[in-house]
# Entry
Amino acid sequence: MLKIKKPGLLSSIQDLGRTGFQKFGVIASGAMDPFAHRMANLLTGNAENEPTLEITMLGPTIIFEEDALISICGGDLSPAINSVPVRSWRSIFVKKGSELKFGYTQSGCRAYLAVAGGFSVSEVMKSKATYLRAGIGGYEGRALKAGDQLVLGTPSDQSDRMTEYLIQQLQNQSFLESDWSITPELIPNTESNPFIRFTKGRQFELFSKESQQKLIGAAFDVTAQSDRMGYRLKGPALSLSEPAELISEAVNFGSIQVPPDGNPIVLLADRQTTGGYPKIGQVAFVDLPLLAQAKPGDKLRFVEISHEKAQHLYLEREWKLKELKQGIYLKTR
Amino acid sequence: MEYNLHPLGDNAVLIELGNEISQEAHEKVQALTAVLETQPPDWMTEYIPAYTTVSIFYDPLLIYQLSSDKLSYDYVCSLIKPLMEGLEASKAADARVVEIPVCYGGEFGPDLEYVAKHNGMTPEEVINIHSSGDYLVYMIGFAPGFPFIGGMSEKIAAPRRESPRLKIPERTVGIAGMQTGIYPIETPGGWQLIGRTPVKLFRPHDDSPTLLKAGDKIKFKPISLKEFENWKETE
# Structure
């Protein structure tokens, strides 16, 4: 069991989202940075959809009431175990009684804590993701509070092998980091002010030539009115070449829509299922982690790529991930 | 059936079946979703129907494994072709009618007076018109189980509030322009609030998590405050 001593700013249980219920208007939810979430699970021997703890901006303090194999991926929120800094993007064996403390973000915005076996919470509509506004899923449908107790699930055989491997090298320390980690080339760059690759949205052509060029040339601020639902950006106003009444239709993770005030909104994990604003662009899925790791005050720049290119990038990353998975498996066999 | 295809991100295709909100487009959407419900393609992860479109989501890696010589989007488009062939718009005749009891006015409907005044009638007249209409659920969106309803009389239309309320209680019935709707969960919103139903529209722990679905017909039935308080879900 893990005990929450301090909850941090917004720490919630997330998985890869609630699939199959958007037709009922039920939002997908799930990890804002699905890549970091999957990596954290991979490094603890979990299935990719096991729930992890999504930690935002200012992290929690957690007491381990049992031994556990963990991994922290995503933004750098200066994690430390018993006051000793630990590295992200690798496996860590933690002994009972240890205290894992996160601080304020050093780079990025969100970190994901996976624990071998996952967190034992019940499924609502086939997902363990917290849907904050409806108060369902995750840990009692809400963000964590001090005093919460997270029960762990049963670790997989792979998790057990990884734990054994680390225990063999353990001497007197209260924790041990693995000598394997995610290849640096696979880790998204979470430096501030990223370039975000996007493809043309379905209503791109309805925007004035000037607005089309501004989206590509200008920098946009991530405003304080940005959350898990979407990032509200501020930059040069974007407008349609002539007014158009649009009919509500489905939106997706990373859709860039523009309401009448001209300030684009990038839709993220807690997006509504449908929207009636024109979509000028769509963020390439491989760059969703860059968005999830951007925080208010950061500047975003958009770079256009073709839909073909976006699909190739997606597949390439999946293949690299597969190789990585196999590598870890072989190492601990 | 005629249609156009558009990409929607790296894992979805949007099928456009019409370009205006109409019974005809709705019937096409219903026909396609009926097929997706009864014979879901094994490559589909989920779908989202709307007024004139149906968006189908898929796992690009799985699609790649099914066809390694094509990009996932192109391959999915080729799979949609046989799906659309021979598809005929379904008739709305067999639509389900759902009766929704509403306690109008009072603390549940603080804007009923405004809607009445705006249209030069009494609150009772607004209630009569609202509860005698034939309504169709075109789509579900915005919030879990939130119905986009067509068929409200323009006699009781009213503009949205200038500044939205921060919290609208769940199950509140409202009017915005020519539309009427019901808030299934507490959300901010700018609609004129005219009443509340005792019936839960969002049931996250049930097999079918929402009371309403696209294609349903709705009848609103006025009930008293006493009936509202004593209401027990019969299901």
About this structure: The longest helix of chain A spans residues 307-331. Residues 239 and 262 of chain A are 6 Å apart (CA to CA). DSSP finds five helices and 21 strands in chain A. The radius of gyration of chain A is 20 Å.
